[in-house]
Amino acid sequence: MQALRIVIAEDSVLLREGLAQILARAGHEVVAQVGNAPSLLAAVRRSRPDLVITDVRMPPDHSDEGLRAALRLRAEDPDLPIFVLSQYVGQAYADELLESSGIALGYLLKDRVTDVSQFTAAVEQVAAGGVVIDPEVVRRLLARKRRDDPIARLTVREMDVLTRMAEGRSNAAIARELLISEVAVSKHIGNLFGKLGLAGSSDDNRRVLAVLAYLRSPG
């Protein structure tokens, strides 16, 4: 993949520098490092990066400034890849951000990122228009949904498959992790597409929509 131009928004200087070094070693250019939401907005508008990595909580209020800034940036440029890397699931704005577009979106929890190469691969996948969402983020948001939501119709195994789809896993990788055949994975995916009412589109697009479908249901 060609080098990406990236803006990092993170109020921890040590973590910010660490991310910049990791991305530089992967061949990417960090064009700006900022520690608050207003600086994030200014940096993106000035440098026009290929991808934004942002925390949820930043100064001055340490609430959901990062997510709110991401929403503003998405409103200005719906195609801008956004990668949220945080300790928190920003309940108030996470749904809105994830609903803002079905493409180029990542949301990982810091303490669950245990492999540098997987992290850089996830960044590159989002920059290329993919979706990578931590299953724990999905679980916490799903816990807020009513039982009559379409997502509640899924079986435990279908949810297992869906959470791995959210991580960007291929059918072959899902089959290996769940110790089932690829044929069985395809069957589960077809079933969950049907239960979520996702028909008449490409499989790639439906995979993205399946991950985000619960966010469009009444909560």
Q: How would you describe what is shown here?
A:
Residues 5-125 form the Response regulatory domain. One of its GO terms (biological process) is phosphorelay signal transduction system. The chain has 219 residues and is of the alpha/beta class. The chain folds into 2 domains: 1-134, Response regulator (Rossmann fold, 3-Layer(aba) Sandwich), CATH 3.40.50; 145-219, Winged helix-like DNA-binding domain superfamily/Winged helix DNA-binding domain (Arc Repressor Mutant, subunit A). 51% of the residues lie in helices and 13% in strands. A 6-stranded parallel β-sheet has the order 2-1-3-4-5-6, with helices on both faces. Strand 5, helix 5 (116-127) and strand 6 (131-133) form a beta-alpha-beta unit. Helix 3 (65-76) runs parallel beside helix 4 (91-99) and helix 7 crosses helix 10 (203-216). The chain is globular and about 45 Å long.
Summary of the model, kept short:
This is DNA-binding response regulator, NarL/FixJ family, contains REC and HTH domains. With about 220 residues, the protein is of the alpha/beta class.
List keywords for this structure.
Arc Repressor Mutant, subunit A, about 50% helix, 6-stranded parallel sheet, phosphoprotein, alpha/beta, about 220 residues
CATH-defined topology of the largest domain: Rossmann fold
Per the principal axes of the C-alpha atoms, what is the gross shape? globular
How many beta-strand segments?
6
CATH homolog superfamily of the largest domain: Response regulator
Number of DSSP helical runs = 10
Protein name: DNA-binding response regulator, NarL/FixJ family, contains REC and HTH domains
GO molecular function: DNA binding
InterPro entries: CheY-like_superfamily (IPR011006), NreC/VraR/RcsB-like_REC (IPR058245), Sig_transdc_resp-reg_C-effctor (IPR016032), Sig_transdc_resp-reg_receiver (IPR001789), Tscrpt_reg_LuxR_C (IPR000792), WalR-like (IPR039420)
Domain HTH luxR-type: 147-217
